Amino acid sequence: MTALVQGARRLVGRGGDGVADRIDGLEEAVRSGRGRLPDELVDEAAAVLGRAGSRLRLSGDHTVVALAGATGSGKSSTFNALTGLELSVTGVRRPTTSWTLACVWGADGADALLDWLGVPPRHQVRRDSSLDRPEDVRRLEGLVLLDLPDHDSTEVAHHVEVDRLVAMADLLVWVLDPQKYADAAVHERYLRPLAGHRDVMMVTLNHIDEVPPSRREAMLADLRRLLAEDGLGEVPVIATSARHGEGIPALEQAIARQVKEKKAVNARLMADLSAVAGRLDAAVGDGRPGDVSRARTRELVDSFADAAGVPTVVRAVEQSTRRRAAAATGWPVTAWLGRLRPDPLRRLHLDLGSRDRELTAAARASLPAPTQVQRARVDGAVRALSDEVGGELSPPWAAAVRRASTGRLPDLNDSLDQAVTSVDLGVARTPAWWRMVRVLQWVLLAVAVVGGLWLAALAVLGYLRVSVPTTPQWRALPVPTLMLLGGIVAGVLLGVLCRAFVRFSSRRRARAADRRLRAAITEVTERLVVEPVQAEVEAYRATRAGLSAALRR
Predict the structure, then answer these.
(1) What is the set of domains in the chain, with CATH numbers?
(2) pLDDT band at 337, cuts 50/70/90?
(3) Which pLDDT does position 6 carry in this prediction?
(4) What is the C-alpha to C-alpha distance for residues 257 and 237, in angstroms, rounded to an integer?
(5) Which of 266, 304, 382, 526 has the fewest CB within 10 Å, making it most exposed?
(6) 427 and 324 in contact (C-beta within 8 Å)?
């Protein structure tokens, strides 16, 4: 629970859970929506939270009521009539200043609140002196009444001051003039945008004494019609004449009721939170994010594997396995010729043995760069995945999903290369049957060599006409001849026979390498594309949950 939420519960007591939950929800929505929704909208929501936090840390026993109006509306006269003092200079004698005048009923705890409002001490007055009637002070105890500058003043500072305090006041009283109550400036700039604040607004039609009695009801009805068009049909409208005091007691009573109930702070916070949460909600939308399907992930992995050169590596594994197997199981006399051919994997700087892999771990594999077709396939697969997830989302969030899906792609080539080079392709391992065949081949070669040497010795002895010992025979074939021919023929036939098994073994090893490579590519796919997209989906759901809490849905 944040300090802001705790402050809400302390300020409004048991009823604070509604405000606290809304604040907590809006904080979550701002945190999750940052960088995904328009910055100006998120900044506005953060500013509302900031104002709410500041207001919650200040006095909850005071209600800030701001009198706002145009030049000549009698706003300052109304202020004087409510305070019972000639505090605000009226008419053309009003000084050109952007400062607001404040009158406080009950001074305890109001200093920090006035500092927050930005009202300097020289523009403050207290209604707690011995000259005030006790019943006046008690009736409005806790009221901080502000007389704002004219909102239609030619001074830019006045506009800034009015806009600032309109956003900070707990209760707004708009003082309108019979001649300018339909002015588009006040309706379009203030009243209509504050339609959600109808519970913390009042409207007074001042100078009612200048309107003939026969026209007053019609004018009030027309004003209520305009307010209804602004979305403020339920706002109280009070006819007053600050000059003669007509309607001032009714206005004072309405303000006193709000001050006594101490609900204006809560209502203003609720209105601010609802207004900005509603705008955020409209930007977020109510679409449902899609799930990353297995088929889409498989398509993405296939495109990444193709761009990484996995098919090339798999073919190299099969060819390298055949080459190594031929060298291990072939006839030793001719098998060494295969070693003269370059190893396909060594040419790619892959699976060079443990020592060589350590030396080249940080180096790039000598794989061909992705072609334009392969890059286009990767882009298409990534775009299809982002469209599948964000197709039903609002434009800002769909764009956030799209950015997340492509944000890490600049690291794609290095990540794919590292994934390929880090995989143990299993080519360096020598199967046991290869070693058995190799031993048998060398035994057969040794038999053939012994037979050949035996025959050579017999030939030399015969040439020298030396007595030749009897040569053993098997089925009328001399044993030396049988050893020579049998060793050669058996060795060659064994090598040919092993080729069929080598072909099967090399394909199986290539399939195993393909699985390992695709597992590594899948990890890259998850890290670079799927996880960022899923993070956006989680942020979207967190934002939706936060806004639901802020809007109490």
Answers:
(1) 1-60+264-284 (no CATH), 61-261 (3.40.50.300), 294-550 (no CATH)
(2) low
(3) 53
(4) 15
(5) 526
(6) yes
